[in-house]
From TrEMBL:
Source organism (scientific name): Lyngbya aestuarii BL J
GO CC, any one term: cytoplasm
SUPFAM superfamilies per the UniProt record, alphabetical: Isocitrate/Isopropylmalate dehydrogenase-like
Transferase among keywords: yes
Encoding gene per record: plsX
Gene3D superfamilies per record: Isopropylmalate Dehydrogenase
Protein name: Phosphate acyltransferase
Pathway listed: Lipid metabolism; phospholipid metabolism
The keyword Ribosomal protein belongs to this UniProt entry's keyword annotation: no
GO BP annotation list: fatty acid biosynthetic process; phospholipid biosynthetic process
Entries under InterPro entries matching the protein: FA_synthesis, Phospholipid_synth_PlsX-like
Reactions listed under catalytic activity: a fatty acyl-[ACP] + phosphate = an acyl phosphate + holo-[ACP]
Enzyme class, UniProt record, top EC level: transferase
Domain of life: Bacteria
Subunit structure: Homodimer. Probably interacts with PlsY.
Length: 345
């Protein structure tokens, strides 16, 4: 390839607004972040999109693919039927080390399955997890929630591994010195919750690699008391979608209230800088997507509704994970003899 810059393979056909918005976001990242983007998708469509950005120089490389995984398709079956689909081709680039990371806003299940089939898991990791960064009451301290959709059913040792991986990501990418780990539960007491929660609590408490702060109730997730929240993918996905919905509703209500009457409109003009900062704190666009932790390559799974700024920020997350050696740090933890993660619980 002849370049020393970080190379990010973009599934340009994935997402509700692909390929136009995905291409625009990739070019934005190339300009702002100094990365090299590889656009994976239908060559004719991508060339047509690039014509709308004639000033970009040099233009990104197009890696041709055939078709994509539709949202209604079952991931494994579709990946096998469509070996040249954009997400398959992008993951092959990562496997062959022609790319340093993959970003996709397409079918999240297909992205995870393609990563596992082509790139594989890190040694010692039983299940990958998708981590999502959410705002908290402390504007300088977001919370990482995982898993938010990769694993509907979990064992205690899976959640323990999520806690270790989340702690590493929080420390080295989000800049938290000693991340406080919380286990999402229905009460603070160690005896509360179902069998999974009770058994996981004991394992996290005994794990010397993490700073376990105890059970976190739903109201605590955005409080700023915890830096990492661990849960299974079913609960995590519901939590993520609910949080995004609340943020959108609050923004909508604020706009409605501040557009009613002359006095409110004057107040809105005065509050505009504060409202802009508020939107940045609650909008998922700011982080772009979740890192698929536990696979042997940097993979960012973005929101299906991603537009150009979101894609750009997803690429930023990929670059930060690479620059901070997240995969290497996770792997080093599981090369050491340690506590319960290898116990088979």
């Amino acid at each position: 390839m002849g370049s020393t810059r970080t190379r990010i393979a973009i599934d340009a056909m994935g997402g509700d607004f692909a390929p136009a918005e995905v291409v625009a976001g990739a070019l934005m990242a190339q300009e702002k972040l100094g990365v090299e983007v590889l656009l994976v998708g239908d060559q004719q469509q991508l060339e047509a999109c690039l014509k709308h950005h004639p000033t970009v120089s040099p233009p990104p490389e197009i890696v041709p693919s055939e078709g994509m995984i539709e949202m209604h398709e079952e991931p494994l079956g579709a990946l096998k039927r469509k070996p040249k689909a954009s997400i398959n081709v992008a993951m092959n680039l990562l496997k062959e080390k022609r790319a340093d990371a993959v970003v996709s806003a397409g079918h999240s299940g297909a992205a995870m399955a393609a990563a596992l089939l082509r790139v594989g898991r890190l040694r010692g990791i039983d299940r990958p997890a998708i981590g999502a960064v959410l705002p908290t009451l402390d504007p300088t301290s977001p919370v990482l929630v995982l898993d938010v959709g990769a694993n509907v059913d979990c064992r205690p040792k899976f959640l323990e591994q999520f806690a270790v991986m989340g702690s590493i990501y929080s420390q080295y990418v989000l800049g938290v010195d000693q991340p406080r780990i919380g286990l999402l539960n229905i009460g603070e007491e160690a005896s509360k919750g179902n069998d999974l929660a009770v058994r996981t609590y004991q394992m996290l408490q005994e794990n010397t690699q993490i700073n376990f702060a105890g059970n976190a109730e739903g109201r605590d997730v955005l409080s700023g008391q915890y830096d990492v929240i661990v849960c299974d993918g079913f609960v995590g996905n519901v939590l993520l979608k609910f949080a995004e919905g609340v943020g959108e509703i609050v923004l909508h209500l604020l706009k409605d209230e501040l557009s009613t009457g002359l006095r409110a409109q004057i107040g809105a003009a005065m509050l505009k800088p504060s409202l802009k900062r508020f939107k940045q704190r609650v909008d998922h666009v700011e982080h772009g997507g979740g890192l698929l932790l536990g696979v042997a390559g940097v993979c960012i799974i973005g929101h299906g509704s991603s537009k150009a700024p979101t894609i750009c920020n997803a690429i930023r997350s990929a670059r930060d994970a690479i620059n901070n050696g997240v995969l290497e740090r996770i792997q080093s933890q599981y090369q050491k003899p340690h506590q319960k993660a290898a116990s088979g619980q």
